[in-house]
User: Fold 2-amino-3-ketobutyrate coenzyme A ligase, mitochondrial from Smithornis capensis.
Amino acid sequence: MWRTVAVRALRGAGAGGPRTASGAAAAQLRRRLESELEDIRGAGTWKSERVIASRQGPHLQLAGGGGGIINFCANNYLGLSSHPEVIRAAVEALEKFGAGLSSVRFICGTQSIHKDLEEKIARFHQREDAILYASCFDANAGIFEALLTPEDAVLSDELNHASIIDGIRLCKANKYRYKHMDMQDLEAKLQEAQKHRLRLVATDGAFSMDGDIAPLREICQLAQKYDALVFIDECHATGFLGPNGRGTDELLGVVDKVTIINSTLGKALGGAAGGYTTGPKPLIDLLRQRSRPYLFSNSLPPAVVGCASKALDLLMESNAIAQSMAAKTQRFRSKMTAAGFTISGKDHPICPVMLGDARLASVMAEDMLSRGIYVIGFSYPVVPKGKARIRVQISAVHSDEDIDRCVEAFTEVGRKHGALP
Ligand code: PLP
Assistant:
């Protein structure tokens, strides 16, 4: 009897189709989830995903036929995600070292390429040592808990990335949040935090929603005055900010004042995946012993290691790619400003076109896509209310013509929707 029922249930679902769990709890869960999803749709904050049918790059083919799209919304700042040498390095690493390690690092998951990449990252940033993670999200989740105790304090910019916020939540240190890039407020919080054993100031090097760069010189001066350490998240800086692309600390001349850097291999450095911490050797040694996302998660796959390693080689050979991105950024920012738009931030390839109204940002982004320009509108709760924008990200592999087409499309669409006179 039960066999017949089971066979019918299976047939009902279609061979290999989804099985639906039955029972009151499952039904209640489904109702609750559907209502929550409806709330998200109702609030206008639903995130849908466009499906790309080609490699990541300045020109995309979208699934379902949309070809020839110029892409201005990837973090592919240096265009290395589809660089032939990066791809070749991944294939070679895959063939030589296999698909993956099926192990965490400390059991049976460390290959020579992992050690080589860690050494290369430390050299790139002029730090003593480095440790790899599956992502920078993991690096941020792992560092604060391993480093700070209830005797210590962490002071965090209120607009820091979600992964820093989550990492800080996981630690037992005393938490202080200072106003975005507000040095007076940071100083007040540092004074309050003098009672603790150790103080760590944590900030994004470059903030991804506004394209603004943390005032690291001032932060480091305050850190020196109040005997604090400085941590920066360089996801939107590594590879392209500063004369040699080393990041915000190089750009602002404070390489020897920043103690800890976390960054990603999933943006400018090849774009595959992975993250890291680089800094003093005893810190890195401690993270290998105590950092939970490192200890309890699989090693980075060899192909991913191969990509990042080659990306770093290319950057250490020459600063030409980083420089070409800076020139393109300058072209976009100055042409858009001349056209009458307000672009937030300064000298950063994240160029938020400030529009204010959420609906305007959304319809303009849709209209841009219909003209072959792929950009994304951001509104509350991702950015503050009344500060909706379209975020444009420039890459070294955009041609001048790509950039000019984007500015022309913005000008037409802006006039059509009343964002420009
Ligand atoms: N930190 C910042 C500032 C980021 O923008 C991101 C990614 O969006 C991360 C951390 C997480 O990086 P990953 O994609 O390597 O997890």
Notes: The CA atoms of residues 368 and 410 lie 7 Å apart. The chain has a mean pLDDT of 94. Residues 135-137, 140, 161, 163, 204, 208, 233, 235-236, 264, 266, 275 surround pyridoxal-5'-phosphate (CB under 6 Å).
